[in-house]
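Severity: low
Component: inverse-folding endpoint
Summary: output formatting inconsistent between runs
Steps to reproduce: submit the following structure tokens with default settings.
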């Protein structure tokens, strides 16, 4: 007796059945994110844990812990190592203070310049060309930026373009990166030149995303350009500005290559920052102390990342 399928029913395709584990959405998701999680554990979590462990000991040249010393590396960093933090002078000095200078000046000026250029570029005829010119330094490696600005700051006015310019005005040439009172500002300006393009591109794209109808309605109501920027555009740019600020802060906390190529942390230790000090200590065989410096760098970055995550969550909830 033959059986027939019920009218309107669709027969299941015959073939090899998948194991039951693949029918569960949770396991399927885990199979997709598993490789990424594995890389995260191997390349980030494990080295981070090892670094924290190293920071509580002394190491030999092969990075083997020879003696556990507890928090002595951290105590040394903030109380005895004057090249890292010197509170005996005013204003305070050291690598940590230099990093604070970088965080304030570099982040603020790069953000403001990027925002200013983004706003002005939208009002000129050759917007694409102007943005391309500003963005070009962002595409240059930091080591190449350092070499370019070494020529700009060169004390010999016949070689250094900046000293060549100021000598034509009757001033004496200045050793911009050879003096303790000017070296940090010279380095910061060079890095601002290289990073403003990123802030400009992100904020310019965000400006383009603001509805033209809203802008035209404000103009119809008699609002001036400054009022439009202050009351409409700037509030709508709050999330992109937060993203750019976080990127700039993280970038400057770990700044290394430009300083290392241009000054090596000199003159003396006037331009050393946290990353340069960490590399120097590794080179001196102080692996445990260098690991403690790396942990401090990580602790500076974590609150910034936490703020960024909370900012995105609040925007998603209210948006």
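Observed output (run 2 of 3):
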């Amino acid at each position: 007796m033959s059986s027939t399928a019920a009218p309107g029913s669709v027969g299941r395709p015959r073939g090899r059945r998948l194991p039951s584990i693949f029918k569960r959405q949770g396991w399927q998701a885990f199979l997709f994110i598993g490789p990424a999680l594995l890389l995260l554990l191997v390349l980030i979590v494990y080295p981070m844990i090892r670094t924290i462990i190293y920071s509580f000991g002394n190491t030999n040249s092969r990075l083997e812990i020879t003696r556990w010393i507890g928090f002595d590396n951290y105590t040394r960093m903030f109380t005895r190592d004057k090249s890292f933090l010197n509170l005996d002078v005013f204003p305070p000095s050291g690598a940590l203070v230099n990093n604070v200078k970088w965080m304030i000046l570099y982040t603020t000026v790069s953000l403001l310049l990027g925002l200013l250029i983004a706003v002005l570029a939208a009002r000129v005829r050759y917007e694409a060309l102007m943005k391309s010119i500003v963005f070009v330094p962002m595409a240059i490696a930091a080591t190449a930026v350092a070499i370019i600005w070494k020529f700009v700051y060169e004390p010999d006015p016949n070689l250094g373009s900046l000293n060549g310019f100021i000598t034509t005005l009757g001033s004496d040439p200045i050793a911009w990166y050879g003096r303790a009172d000017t070296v940090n500002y010279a380095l910061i300006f060079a890095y601002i030149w290289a990073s403003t393009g990123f802030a400009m591109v992100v904020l310019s794209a965000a400006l383009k995303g603001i509805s033209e109808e809203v802008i035209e309605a404000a103009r119809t109501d008699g609002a001036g350009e400054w009022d439009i920027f202050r009351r409409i555009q700037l509030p709508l740019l709050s999330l992109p500005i937060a993203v750019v600020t976080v990127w700039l802060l993280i970038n400057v906390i770990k700044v290394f290559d430009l300083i290392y190529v241009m000054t090596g942390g000199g003159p003396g230790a006037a331009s050393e920052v946290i990353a340069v000090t960490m590399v120097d200590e590794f080179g001196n065989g102080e692996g445990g102390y260098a690991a403690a410096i790396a942990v401090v760098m990580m602790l500076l970055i974590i609150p910034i990342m936490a703020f960024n995550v909370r900012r995105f969550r609040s925007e998603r909830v209210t948006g």
